[in-house]
């Protein structure tokens, strides 16, 4: 598994990966209606391409296949998605470590994220602490997530 920075040409593959992950992996913690509303947020290619390229977005790739993505936006892990077939194989740890190194280099002392219920156990294993539960209202549907923080050694 190789890591590399995202390029504009990767946008469609990254968004497809994210939607697929939400619709498969996250169904254990969210309803079908919730996952559909959530996944539909990742259809605006122009918006997401600009956002991911403006942040530090890393991809896990096998050959030409995108199998994971992680994005650092300021002091926050903005995106962290791993293909359903690649869960629990170390890619999430690799991507998160890359984002932590970059955050430390920028002087970030507390790396934040808004984690899905599905991601909370993984993030706790990586040293994140839950700060607050929150519900976001998105297209008529509530989606619960957890604000988390990991103290970094800078």
From TrEMBL:
CDD domains named in the record:
NAT_SF
Q: Which residues cross the membrane?
A: none
In terms of Pfam families, this protein maps to:
Acetyltransf_10 (PF13673)
Domain N-acetyltransferase positions: 1-153
From the Swiss-Prot or TrEMBL record, give the protein name.
Answer: GNAT family N-acetyltransferase
């Amino acid at each position: 598994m190789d890591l590399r920075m995202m390029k504009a040409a990767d946008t469609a593959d990254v968004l497809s990966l994210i939607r697929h992950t939400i619709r498969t992996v996250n169904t254990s913690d969210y309803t079908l209606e919730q996952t559909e509303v959530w996944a539909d947020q990742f259809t605006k290619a122009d918006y997401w391409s600009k956002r991911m390229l403006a942040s530090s977005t890393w991809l896990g790739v096998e050959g030409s296949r995108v199998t994971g993505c992680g994005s650092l936006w300021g002091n926050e892990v903005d995106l962290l998605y791993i293909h359903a077939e690649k869960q629990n194989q170390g890619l999430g740890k690799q991507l998160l470590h890359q984002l932590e190194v970059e955050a430390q280099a920028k002087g970030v002392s507390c790396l934040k994220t808004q984690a899905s219920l599905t991601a909370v156990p993984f993030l706790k294993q990586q040293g994140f602490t839950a700060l607050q539960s929150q519900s976001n209202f998105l297209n008529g549907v509530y989606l619960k997530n957890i604000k988390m923080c990991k103290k970094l050694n800078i």
